[in-house]
Every structure is written in structure tokens, then in C-alpha cells.
Amino acid sequence: MRGSEATMKQVSLGWHGPMVSEVCFGSLAISPLQGRVSFAEGVRVLRYALEQGIDWIDTAEIYANYSQIAQALQYHPEVRMVSKSYSVTAEEMSESIERARKELNRDVIDFFLLHEQESALTLKGHQGAWEELMKAKADGRVKYIGISTHAVDAVKAGALLPGIDVIHPIVNRQGLGIIDGILEEMLEAIRFASELGIGIYAMKIFGGGHLATHPEEALDFITDIPWIQAMALGMSSVEEIDFNLNYLAGQEISEELRRSVTYRERKLYIADWCQGCGRCCEACPQSALSLEEVVEGGMVQATVEAGQCVLCGYCGRVCPHFCLKIV
């Protein structure tokens, strides 16, 4: 089977948000951060996804793939864009928005989010950036604003932010990747935000690959939650797109297609030339990295707790010696 045989389900993203496809294309999977595919192959995969009816794309400043997305969008100007930034001040956020507009060739960015907020305290620290997002929404540079997060507390606190339209939380059937609580607490926080009219689209539903051996169960879990309208799926092959979209459309999945997307175990590789600077540990949102002594009384190197790692690849971006990559 090739291609989705049914029209992509459209959902309303919150009370006041737009109608979008149930699936958002999570572009981290084709970005340099993860290195699964080449630039050109990523463009091809993304174009295929758009041809199947996916009508919005999730990216972030840190993914460093604006030019890749812009190339794929040449023939799809109607597709909506989501970007995210770690900006703290109003000036930084203004620069982030302008960078996205320029590099994506868009006068307006459909959604712009504060990236990886952790708590009410974190949101307070980013107040200047949030105020700039509200200003950008008012003057038309951005249509909808929100936050992305791996934290229960940030979902609850974010739901009370003035002007917020959307929250992008980590949620999957085992609660993998939640940094400050358990699955039940995250679902309750999501319910709270959704009942305030905020749009919710889930991230990491396959738990960074840890739950991809049973993809049907991972997808069913999300679609069964009434407070989640949509999901961002990281896909780096045509076969993954076909599997996910056909399954969600209720189409029969051939055994050949299922075998083609059977999970191949991936892991974070740390090269033996690691200098132990610790930058990766600071960048890891899951606290999956730490420094360990490799020579008694002397050299330390980074090590990873595989069960906590969600294979986001953020650590590799900050490594000055290119020691970390997902393989």
C-alpha cells in the first residue's frame, strides 16, 4: 500500500485555533540534529507527507532546518508552520521571529512557541520573550502563540498565560520523558488546559523510539484522549508516513509495510574522544547525561542513562568536539 487512502482527518486546535490535520509533521526527524537522512532525502520525505494531506509542520530554531523546510514548501504555500525558540528577552524573541520569517520565506509564522518550558518559574524568567510573542501576535507577525514542554508544572502554569493559544506537551502511553511527574499528572494538566480552550498537540508519542515496537498502541493511546486534538509525528521515511497515516485513517496495514517500519533500535553514541566539558549534560532536558570518571583521579567523560534518553539529539548540537550522535 502506498499513500493514504482516506482524507486526512481535520481537527480544531482549541476553541479559537485553526482547523489542521490530525498529524503535524515533526521535522526533528529529518533535521541535522538527528542525522537520520540527508538534506535532499529530508526534503523528499517532507514533500511526500504534504502530498498525503499533512498541512502543518513543527520545527524549532535549534533544529537548524529552516532552509530544508523552505525548499519543501515551494509548492505548498498553504501549509502552516510552527517554530519554537529558547529566547528569554523581548529582543531575543524578536530576532528569533525575524529569523524564522526570513529563512522560511514567510511574512507570517502561524505558530510560535517558547521552547521547552519547565515550570511557572521558567515562564516568569521568559516574561520578556512572552510579551514579545503577544506583541507579534497583535501586529500580525505570528498568528498563534504557546509553549512546548516536558513538564507537568509548565502545562498547568502555561495554561494561565495571557494570550496563550496552544501547548505542545510530551505525552505517551508510558509517560516516558516527563521530567517532573507521572503520566496521570500530565494527563490531568492537559485536561485542565484543554478545558480552558487551549489547543493541545502531543509530542514524543513513541517515547523517542522506546515505544515504536508497538506503534499501533502508541497511536491509539493518543487518539483515545479527548483533551488532545493532534500529534506531531517525527517521520524520516515514506514508509513511516504511509504506516502512520493509513493506520490513523482506519486502513488495513499490509504485513510488508508493517515490517518496513519495525523499530530498529537506536541509541546515543558518545565517542571516546569526549573531553568531559559537561555542556551536553546541561543541555539534556531529561537529565539522561552525566559525567563519570574514566581515569582514577583524573579524566571524566559523558555517559548516558539509556532508559531516560528520548533521542532528541539536543546534546549533539552543543558538543564542541562532535562526540555525540544518534546511531
What does this 3D model show about the protein?
- It comes from Desulfitobacterium dehalogenans (strain ATCC 51507 / DSM 9161 / JW/IU-DC1).
- This is Putative oxidoreductase of aldo/keto reductase family.
- Residues 265-294, 300-327 form the 4Fe-4S ferredoxin-type domain.
- GO terms for molecular function: iron-sulfur cluster binding; metal ion binding; oxidoreductase activity.
- By secondary structure, the protein is an alpha/beta fold.
- It folds into two domains: 10-260, TIM Barrel, CATH 3.20.20; 268-326, Alpha-Beta Plaits.
- The chain is built from twelve helices and 14 strands.
- The strands form four sheets. An eight-stranded parallel beta barrel has the order 3-4-5-6-7-8-9-10, surrounded by five helices.
- Helix 8 (215-223) links the parallel strand 9 and strand 10 (230-234).
- Helix 3 crosses helix 5 and helix 6 packs parallel to helix 7.
- The protein is globular.
- The two termini are 28 Å apart.
- The mean pLDDT is 91.
Sequence-ordered SSE layout with sheet pairings:
Blueprint (H helix, E strand, L loop, with lengths): L9 E3 L6 E3 L1 E4 L12 H13 L4 E3 L7 H7 L7 E6 L4 H14 L5 E9 L2 H6 L1 H13 L2 E8 L2 H7 L7 E4 L13 H13 L3 E4 L12 H9 L6 E5 L3 H11 L6 H6 L7 E3 L8 H5 L5 E5 L6 E5 L9 H5 L5 E3 L1
Parallel strand pairs: 3-4, 3-10, 4-5, 5-6, 6-7, 7-8, 8-9, 9-10
Antiparallel strand pairs: 1-2, 11-14, 12-13
Helix pairs in contact: 1-2, 3-5, 6-7
